[in-house]
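Help needed: design a sequence for this.
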């Protein structure tokens, strides 16, 4: 049964609009978005769909195809940051962030097809699908960068997760066949063509199914170290620092701040290098950069975990051109670049290594760079 039909069955009215927004993988530029850095993620083909209809009163009802017997209910007047709740908070946060532009209550049914807890930004996909629908229904006329900031504010202030701007931006602004080079300071973008298929390559995504709890403090702590380092260096954000400047100012920082800052400054450099290499279709050099980034996330930023390291190491031992953990860290997914012919034996090797280590069975995905959010259907 389609999302629209389910909506009608559940809410006894038709949806006015269905919007979709994708999850993402990040090729390079990790934990640098909140340092005003450059990142280069791309949208995956898995997406979240939000069917929405305005109501005559101020009630809000939210449900999902994955849990159709649960309806979350609140009202426009009861939305307040920090409210307990589960995944519905991400939607409530978006409605809240639109402020008094939302003049009617809402019925919302979501079909979330981005794997949860895999570090593929299911939360940004959820926020952005709903944000796009509300932007259209209430004629708010926000641009895509403005919508990305709005969704980020929902997550920062309403949900309480101090994320950067990368996930929402790529979910909204990605284009099929391209990675998105994003300047996280002004949200200007450049689409970077990435023809993996043409080069006979595929990007394997390994969901380690290890616990991924960004809201648990590790993420916020890394962000705080980076901000404190920037403060002590007298700059607005670590983006404004070169590696030479960082080295000469070493004594101003604690050992830990220096390690965090070194990762950030070098990973931003790696993004720029990667852009050049992609334009030359030099994928083996791109692979090496991914592997360097992994080492930096593991050793300097200290956000990897045994499952992520095993996924990357086993990929490398099985002909991968390069790979790394992606996203917030402490679990979630790793990516590894392969020739198509090498993928299936690598998957087997990774699954075997995980069994041997007593880890959860990993899940595998592949995805070519896909398109960003769009209106799926206006009814
Ligand atoms: C999470 C956050 C992003 C970004 C990444 C790390 O996905 O939501 O803003 O900081 O971690 O690069």
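Sure. Designed sequence:
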């Amino acid at each position: 049964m389609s999302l629209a039909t389910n909506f009608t069955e559940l809410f006894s009215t038709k949806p006015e609009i269905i919007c979709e927004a994708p999850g993402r993988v990040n090729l390079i530029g990790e934990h640098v978005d909140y340092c005003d850095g450059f990142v280069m993620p791309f949208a995956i083909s898995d997406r979240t769909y939000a069917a929405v209809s305005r109501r005559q009163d101020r009630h809000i009802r939210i449900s999902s195809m994955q849990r159709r017997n649960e309806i979350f209910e609140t009202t426009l007047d009861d939305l307040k940051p920090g409210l307990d709740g589960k995944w519905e908070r991400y939607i409530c946060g978006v409605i809240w962030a639109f402020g008094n532009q939302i003049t009617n209550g809402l019925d919302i049914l979501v079909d979330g097809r981005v794997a949860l807890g895999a570090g593929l930004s299911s939360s940004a996909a959820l926020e952005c699908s709903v944000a796009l629908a509300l932007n259209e229904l209430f004629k708010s006329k926000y641009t895509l960068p403005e919508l990305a900031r709005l969704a980020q504010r929902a997550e920062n202030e309403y949900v309480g997760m101090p994320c950067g701007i990368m996930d929402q931006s790529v979910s909204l602004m990605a284009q099929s066949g391209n990675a998105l080079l994003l300047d996280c300071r002004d949200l200007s973008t450049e689409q970077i063509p990435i023809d993996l298929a043409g080069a006979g390559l595929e990007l394997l995504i390994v969901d380690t199914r290890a616990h991924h709890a960004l809201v648990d403090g590790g993420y916020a702590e890394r962000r705080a170290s980076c901000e404190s380092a920037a403060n002590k260096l007298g700059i607005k954000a670590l983006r404004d620092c070169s590696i030479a400047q960082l080295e000469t100012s070493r004594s101003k920082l604690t050992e830990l701040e220096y390690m965090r800052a070194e990762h950030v400054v070098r990973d931003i450099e790696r993004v720029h290098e990667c852009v050049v290499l992609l334009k030359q279709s030099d994928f083996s050099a791109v692979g090496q950069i991914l592997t360097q980034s992994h080492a930096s996330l593991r050793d300097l930023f200290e956000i990897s975990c045994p499952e992520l390291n095993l996924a990357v190491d086993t990929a490398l031992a099985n002909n991968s051109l390069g790979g790394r953990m992606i996203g917030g860290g402490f679990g979630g997914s790793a990516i590894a670049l392969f020739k198509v012919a090498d993928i299936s034996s690598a998957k087997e090797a990774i699954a075997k290594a995980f069994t041997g280590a007593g880890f959860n069975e990993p899940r595998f995905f592949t995805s070519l760079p896909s398109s960003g959010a769009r209106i799926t259907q206006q009814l």
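The pocket of alpha-D-galactopyranose is lined by residues 30-31, 33-34, 121, 163-164, 166-167, 327-328 (CB under 6 Å).
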